[in-house]
Model the fold of this input.
Amino acid sequence: DSRRIVADTGVIVSPRDIAAMATAIALIQTEPQPKRDARAAAARRHIEDHYTLDRMVKAFDDLHLHGALPPSL
Done:
């Protein structure tokens, strides 16, 4: 789910919504470089905090071996 992965570090648009994608790209391109850098750093931290290999393997095992859904992020 893109919304969970991106969280509040980026912009989510509906599939096949070309106008929304163009608007999102334009919005990010017009941000000052320090804000874009901060957004990129926040995105990296979010991915590193929530989607490590160990965490993903555990979530896979919990679901497929034990039928347990992973907790919400």
Observations:
- The first helix runs from residue 2 to 6.
